[in-house]
Amino acid sequence: MRVTESIRRAAAERRHDTLERLGAERDMWVSTAHPEHGPHQVPLWFRWDGQAVWMCTGAGSATVRNLRGEPRVRLALPDTSDVVLLEGEAECHPAPEVPREAADAFAGKFGWDPRTEQAPYVYLRVVPRTVRAWCGTRELRGRVVMREGVWLD
To answer: β-strand 27-34 against 121-134: which pairing, if any?
Structure first.
């Protein structure tokens, strides 16, 4: 949602807008860290299932290696004027072991099924613990719309 400079959304409206974007968008920036190599950030396709973000990447990727050692992750939708940041811990599911419903929904959204690839893939599942959403400096105060896994109204 694009808002004008004079409007400051209430928490319930920010939550609604955030959920709408999670359901509609396809790309998300994924930030992980390695204790020796530092931060790592990549864009990945994602699917929101109403409770968690599902993504998929190569089993040997830096993202998967980092998450196996440090599961904390920050996710960001790619709009700097309407910011949505999610934080949580990632679970790694090898493609052959991913819940069928999640993998089918991911394949349905993107027309690509990593389970059919010859190379190994890992699905990443992140249940957000914290969500921040804001448009411009007028919304910096009150930008936390989820805390400890609970949506704030």
So the answer is: unpaired
